[in-house]
Amino acid sequence: MEQTQFKNVSFNVPVVLSRISSYQKEVRDIISANYVDFVPFNTSSVIDDLKLLEMEIKELVASTDLLTVDKSNVASNDLRNYQQDLEECVRGYKIARKLLSIHDLFESLNLTYNGYEKTAHILGKIKSLLDELEDPVLAELHCLHSFIVRYETEYEKLISNLNGKFNELVQLQHRSFQNTKSVTIRINRDENLLYQVVVTLLNTHHNFHTVCQFLLENVFAPVIVKPVSLICDEKSNEQSVLIQLSYQLTVGEELRPGYKTVLSNVMKIFYNLSNINIVVSEDECLFKVLAKQMKKPMCTMLIERCLERDIPGTIEDMKESSMVKDVCEFNAFLHTTNFVDGENDHLLEEYANSIETIHQQKLCDNVLDTAIEIMKRESHEMVLIQDHEYQFVGSSKTELSSCMVTRTVVELKKFLDKVLAEAFAHGDAASRFIKTIATILERYMVDVPMANEKLLFKIPQQSALFRNDCTYLNYWLQKNDDKLNDHGSFANISDALKACGEDIFQQQLNSQRAQMMQALEGFKLSINLLELGTEQQRAIRQCIRQLELLKNVWQTVLPDPVYKQSLSGLIDQFLREVMKRIQSLEDITTAIGNGLVLLIDIMTETLPNLFKEPNEIHQLAKQWMKLLQLRQILCGSLVQITEQWAEGKGPLTMCFGADEIKHLVRALFQNTKQRQTCIASIV
C-alpha cells in the first residue's frame, strides 16, 4: 500500500510542479500587462484553474505528509527531494495566488453596481492583503509598490467622492456682511444615500473635523453668546431640512441672551441635526464621532460664557431659579441624542451640582464688591452718633460719648448688618458670609487709607473722622461678638481696626507737633536780645491759631475724652517748648521780662477757651500750672519768690526744682546781697 502511494507521489509531484510553474508564468503575465504595460488582460480562466490546482496541491501535500509520518524506508531520498521541491513551489504558488487575488479585487472596483460601502469593503480587503506580508519575498517585488500606489489612489478617490457627496447632501454655508453674518445648513432627505455615505465615511475612520469646526465656530459659539434669529424648518420642503441663523457680528454685553434661550436654541439645532445622525451600531453613530471633538469645547463655552454669568447673584433670585434642573435636563437631552464622547458626558451635570456653591461664592463676591463701592464713595457728609449708639474705649474704663462719623461708614455698617442677617437666615451660606465680612473689614483698613491718603494726612478733620470710623466698626464687631465668636479671626480684626484708626490719627498729631515746632522757630531768645519784637509774638500767636483751628475741626468730631486728650497733649508740648526757651536765658532784662509776661498773658487768655469748660485746662494741661507760676516769677520780687519757695515747702516746688528757681533769679536780678540771700534760701 505504501509502495503504491509513493509511486503516485513520484508521478504527481513533477506534474503539480509543472502546473505551478505554468500558473506563476500566467500571473506574471497578468501583473506585467496590467501594472507595467497597462494592457487589459482577462483573468477569469486563470482563477478557475487556480481553484482546481489548489485542491490538487492540498491532496499531494497530505500524501507526502502521510509517508513522512509512516517513516517509509522506500526511496527516502527521492521522497525528501520531492518534498523540498514541492515546498518551494508551494511558496511561489502562494505568492502568485496573493498577487492575483489583489489584482482581482482591484478589477472588481470597476464594476458599475458597486456602492460606496462595497467599494470601501473591497479596498479594506486589499489593504489587509497588502499589510499581511507573510513571505519576505513579497516586500521585494516591484509590483507590490504598484499595488500600494493604486490602492492609495483608489482610496483617495473614494474619500473624495464621499466628501463631495456628503457636501451635496449636507450643505454648510455662511456669509458675512458688514455688520451681520448668515449661516445656513441644508440636509437632504435622501436617507438611503445619506446612510451609505455616512456609514462608509465612519467605516473609513473619517473624523469630520471640517463639520465640527463649522458647527462650533459658526453655529454654537454665536448661539451661546449672541442674540440670534434662528429658523429650524423640516416640514415646508419635502427634499431637505433647513437650519438657518443670522446674528450681529458685534454685540454689547447687556444684549447677551439668557441661558434658557441658549439651551432652547441649542436643543432645536441638535433636534434638526439628528437627520444626519446615522447609526451604524449600538456603539457607533455620527453624533458620537462629532462629540469626541465638540463635546468638551461646546460644554466649556456654555459654562464659561453663558451659565456662569447667569447664576443668580441674590438669594431671592436663586430660590426662584430653575437653572440646576434646566442644565440637568439639557445634559440628559444630549445623552438621549447620542451626543456623547465617554469622557465629558458628566461635565454639565457636575457643573449643575456645583451651581449652589458658585452662587454662594458669586453672592459673596457681589457683597464684597458692593462694600468696596461703598468704601470708595467720597463722603464729606458727617453723621452725629449719639451716646447710646457708639461705644468708645478709654484708657481705664468704657465711656459713652457722642461724636461724628462719615456717612460712608454708617452706610457700610448698615450693609454689614444686612449681610449678617442674611448669613443667619441661610445657615448653609453662613460661613461664607462671615468670611466675606472679615474680608470687607480687612479691605477697609487697606483700601480706604490708600484711596484717601492725601486727605488723611493733610486735613485734620479727615484723620479724626477716619479714627472715629474705625472705632465705629470696631464697636459693631463688639456688639455682634455673640454671632461672630466662633470665628477667631475677628478678634485680630477688631484689634487691627482700632490700631489702624489710632495710627492714622497719631500721624496727624505728629504732623501738628512738627508744624508747631516749625512755627516756634520764630520764638528766638538770646543774650543779645534787648526786647521782644513782633517775631516772637507772631510765633506764639501762630501756634495759638493752629490750636484754635484744630478746636474748630475736632471738638464736634472727636469724642470728648479723645478731643481733650489730644489737644491737651499739643498744648503741653507748646507750653513746654516756650518755657524751656525762657528758662534757658542767662539774662532777662526788665523789657524782655515784661514782654514775656505779655506773651504769657495772651496764652492764658486764649488757651482755656479751647475747651468747653475753660477751667478744665488746669486738670488737662500738665504744664499749665507751671506757666502760671513762671509768670509770677517774671513779675515777682526777690521777697515774693523767697516766700513762694518757702524753704522748699511753698507752691513753687510743685512745678520747679531748686536749680531752675536759682537760674531764673540770677537771670532776672542783679548780683546783690538780697539776691544772694534769696538764692541761699532756695535749697
Automatic annotation (TrEMBL):
One of its GO terms (cellular component) is cytoplasm. It holds the Pfam family ZW10_C2. It comes from the Eukaryota. The keyword Cell division applies. InterPro entries: Zw10/DSL1_C_sf, ZW10_C, ZW10_C_2, Zw10_middle. Residues 401-517 form the Centromere/kinetochore protein zw10 C-terminal domain. Its main location: nucleus. Belongs to the ZW10 family. Gene3D superfamilies: 1.10.357.150. The keyword Cell cycle applies. It is found in: Chromosome, Centromere, Kinetochore; Cytoplasm; Nucleus. One of its GO terms (biological process) is meiotic cell cycle. Keywords: Cell cycle, Cell division, Centromere, Chromosome, Cytoplasm, Kinetochore, Meiosis, Mitosis, Nucleus. Residues 538-682 form the ZW10 C-terminal helical domain. Residues 179-375 form the Centromere/kinetochore protein zw10 middle domain. This is Centromere/kinetochore protein zw10.
